[in-house]
Each structure stands twice: as C-alpha cells, then as structure tokens.
Amino acid sequence: MTTRLRLGLVILTAFLLQVTVFVEFHPLGVAPELPLLVAVLAGRTAGPERGAFAGFAAGLLYDLQLSTPFGLWALTCCLVAFAMGRLTEALHRPEGLVAVATTALASVGGVAFFTTAGALLGERDLLTTRTLRVALLVGVVNLALSPLAGRAVRWSYRPTGAVRAAA
Amino acid sequence: VALSRPGGRARSRLALLVLTAITLLTLDFRDFGPLGAAQTAARDVLAPVRSGVMAVARPVGDAAQGIIDYGNLENENARLRAEIEALRGQALENEIAQQTLRQLQAELDIVHWRDTPRVVARRTAGAAGNFGKGTIEIDKGSNSGLKTNMAVVTAGGLVGKLVRVDGSRSVVQLITSPEFAVGVRVGDEVSLARGNGAGNALRSGEGLSRENRVISGDTVLTAGSASSWFPPGIPVGRVDAVDRSTGGLIVTVTPAADVANVDFVSVLLFEAPGR
C-alpha cells in the first residue's frame, strides 16, 4: 500500500470518527479536533512540506461537513502542520515531555487561529468567552488521543517495502 | 544555498496551499454556485459511508457519554417522569381546546400551520466539532422535496429552518443560533426575534414599543408575514423576561420546543406566498 493511500485512509478515518462518534461523545465537555490532530502529527512525523499537504487534505475534508466558511479548516490545518514540522526540525525531533507539550500547544494554537481567523472573516460567534476554554480542553483531549493517532500517522508515512529494500 | 533550497521549496508549496484555501474561502463567501454543487456532491458521496460508520459508532459514543454523565442521567430521568405526569393532566384540556379551534378554523376558512404538508425526519447528528453554530443534521433532503429556508418544527413548536439541503441530508439552523431570526408576534406587535447563541433563548426588541402590554409567561408565535418562510401561528416560545429599562422593550423568550434534545422533527413544505 502506498504512503498516499495509507495517509488517505488515516485522514478519512479521523474525519469519520469526528463526524460520528465525537458528535455525541464529548470527553471533558468538548469534542476533539481530530483533523487538526492529524495535521499536527503529520507535521511532526513527515516534516513541514508533506505535513502541510496532509493537513490541507484533512482540513478540507472536515470543511465539507461544517457550516463554517469553506476552506478555513484547510487553511488552519496546513499552517499548523507546517509550523509543527518547522518546530520539530528546530528542536531536533524532540521526544518525551517536549513532544507532548508541542502537540498540545499546536492543538490549542490551531483552535485559536481558526476562531480568530473566522472572527476576522465575519463569523463573530466563533470568538466568544467560551473559545479559550474550548481551545485549552481541545489541547488536552487531542493530547490524550495522540498516542493512538500518532501510531496511525507514523504507519501512513512508513516507507513502503520497495523503499525499505532499496535502503 | 544548497541548504536553503528545500526550505524555499517547502515555503513556496505552503504558499500554494494557503492561496488555494484563500481562494476557496473567497468563492464560498461569494456563494460561487459550482463550489456549492461540488460540496453537495462530495457530501452525498460520503453520506452512506457516514451512515454506516454512525450505525456502528453511535451506540459506542452514547454508551461512553452515558457512563460519564451517569449522575446527570438519573436526575434527568426523574425530572422527565415528573414532567410526563404534569403533561398527562394537560393533555385532555388541550384536546378539547384543539377541537374548538378546528371548528372555528373551519368556519372562518383559516389553514392552521399544523395542517401544512410536512416531511418527518430524524436527527442524524448534532454539529461536528466545537464550532457548529447551532445546527443539527437530519436524514431527509432534496430527494424528499425539502428546500433551504423551510421551517422545522416538533410537536412543541418551532425548532429552526433548513440552511443546507443535500440529496439525502439537510442541516437545520436552530432557533437559538445567533444567526437565526424569525418574525414573531409579541402582544399586539410584530417584531424580529433572534437566537442569542446561549442555546436556550431568543431575544426580541426591534419594532416593540414600551407600551406593549406583554408580560412574562405570554406565548410568542410566528407572525407569518407575506414574505416570511414560516407560516403564522407556530409556537416559538414563552416570554421569560421583559426589560423596559432601555427606553424601548426587550423581551427574552424561552423556546417552546426542547431544541437541545430533538430526535424527530417535521419539515413544513411551506413556501412563502410573497416570495
């Protein structure tokens, strides 16, 4: 199976979980933002360029289902993935606590960017007193789901058999 | 120079993605028809996949939420049992009132909103994510004759209106959404009520005078002007608070329908005569 196909499967699975299970199930009172989590992890795993493409695809698919401006999640996820990729490179692929902290912070930052950009585009109700609380809790929930999601994203970027043989 | 090349390429590709996203946003704001059609087609393709996954995943999500909210569910059940008892007492009284109303309507040749043709639909999902802007999704769409802006009701009263209609799914904007507005009759005057985004109330002030004799507990109904998407007389809610301190009159209305917990809704196949 090629990397693109595996990545497509991971993005589709994250999307379907987001719009089915996590519509009813809100741990800590908020839904995770799985497309954003996939973007963060893709940036960390595959670097800024490939991460940005994965983030764009995950965000665009999510945009299809929402009533927020079409393209806003795509913009958010590709920027967050790119930033995460750059940060990971700058920190020389951090492990442990630093990796955990950057994942949570990127999720919080992604939600903050999405709501602020949305408000600037005229969607004033995206930026309310509730937004900061939601952003922080999304960071926590995304962090809790990141071990599982991280495994799926790493699987999608795993070198194919031919590449491994060539190496 | 050799080291900066990959970074430069990454930046230019990011710029391409950002430009694409901004183009999509611009087209969306301009209601570019082909983009809307492409979105609808993509959602229609994904709808059966979502339905299949939801059939399996929903009980899992419900069970997990049930475990987390166990204490609240017990309290909720007790409250609902008490409410059912109270409603049983009112049911007979309402039946007699309904019969009288039907007789009077027949004599005066008035069509009641409850006689409007309708399509019954099931809520398939709430809004995905954390920024759903007060919407729910239902399992009927244009294949069942639904169109955007049609009124959505339950036995309790007005729930919202259709804001997006795909082939087999539609999105309902709830009356509590800050973007929702409906013409209502408050006392003797007609006003515009808007959702306040808090999930439990609407506010109305435009067109109301201080002299309006509305009081807490009064019923608020849709006004149903010639160009309105809503037929007249649909219960919107009850007046919860009346504020005359601003020089005018601001009325807070608690919705008649239990907007947060709807499972089945009716979409009224009503099109405004004046449109």
Structure characteristics:
heterodimer, A: about 170 residues, mainly alpha, 8 helices, about 0% strand, B: about 280 residues, alpha+beta, six-stranded antiparallel β-barrel, six-stranded antiparallel barrel, about 35% helix, about 25% strand
Number of helices of chain B: 3
Poorly predicted runs of chain B are: none
Number of strands of chain A: 0
Strand order of the largest sheet of chain B: 1-2-5-4-3-12
Distance between the termini of chain B: 64 Å
Shape of chain A: globular
**Helical percentage of chain A:** over 70%
Helices and strands of chain B, in N-to-C order? HHHEEEEEEEEEEEE
Report Rg of chain A. 15 Å
Structural class of chain B: alpha+beta
Instruction: Determine Rg of chain B (CA atoms, Å).
Output: 23 Å
Describe the structure.
The complex is a heterodimer of chains A (167) and B (275). Chain A is mostly helical and 167 residues long. Helices cover 78% and strands 0% of the residues of chain A. In chain A, helix 1 (3-19) packs parallel to helix 4 (48-65). The longest helix of chain A is centred in the last third of the chain and has 28 residues, at 129-156. Chain A is globular and about 55 Å long. Chain B is α+β, with helices and mostly antiparallel strands and 275 residues long. In chain B, a hairpin with a 6-residue loop joins strand 10 and strand 11. The model of chain B has no long low-confidence stretch (mean pLDDT 82).
